[in-house]
Amino acid sequence: MMCGGRGTRLDTKVEKPLFRIGGVPMVGRVVGALEDSAVERIIAATSPNAPETQSCLDVPCIETPGEGYVADLDAALNDDQLSQPVLTVAIDLPLLDGEIVDRVLDRHSGGSLSVLVPASLKRELGVSDDTTFESGNREVAPTGINVVGDGPDDAWLTWDRRVAVNVNTLADARVAEQWL
């Protein structure tokens, strides 16, 4: 579980993982979703960017450098506590639940799995779509939930709003609260 980002786009004094959606910190919502899934072990990747978050967690933590998502993910994946394949989840997915996590795990058939949504779905929902790219003649966006493993890369394109709503801005937070 990746929970060490600065959350600068969220424009709040609260650390992003501790930002409340429907009265519950986003990190608590993601931990709950993982606990309600077939995931065997939950480990949080934290950083100096979110010092209060680590003290609020009741799961093992891996300290990352806080140099951005990719660098922090690389640091976490190189930690002795983890062995591949690893389900990675960003804490900014407050609509996540155990059922969709299990669907991701079921779609994984070895190697790595990127979970994508159509960029048009994010726009239709009214949430930010800062990172998009072309895949199979369709503009898609990463969701923040993936499986990292050895072997070939695969992608799963889903229209499920539970993985399409990443909270990066206050406007995104309002959309998430509408769907709770």
Automatic annotation (TrEMBL):
InterPro entries listed in its UniProt record: MobA-like_NTP_Trfase (IPR025877), Nucleotide-diphossugar_trans (IPR029044)
UniProt keywords (A-Z) are: Nucleotidyltransferase, Transferase
- SUPFAM superfamilies, A to Z: Nucleotide-diphospho-sugar transferases
Q: Which Gene Ontology molecular function entries are recorded, alphabetically? A: nucleotidyltransferase activity
Q: Which residues does UniProt assign to the signal peptide?
A: none
Keyword Lyase present in the record's keywords: the answer is no
Q: Where is the MobA-like NTP transferase domain?
A: 2-121
One Pfam family per UniProt: NTP_transf_3
Known PANTHER family for this protein? ADENOSYLCOBINAMIDE-PHOSPHATE GUANYLYLTRANSFERASE (PTHR19136:SF86), MOLYBDENUM COFACTOR GUANYLYLTRANSFERASE (PTHR19136)
* UniProt name for this protein: Adenosylcobinamide-phosphate guanylyltransferase
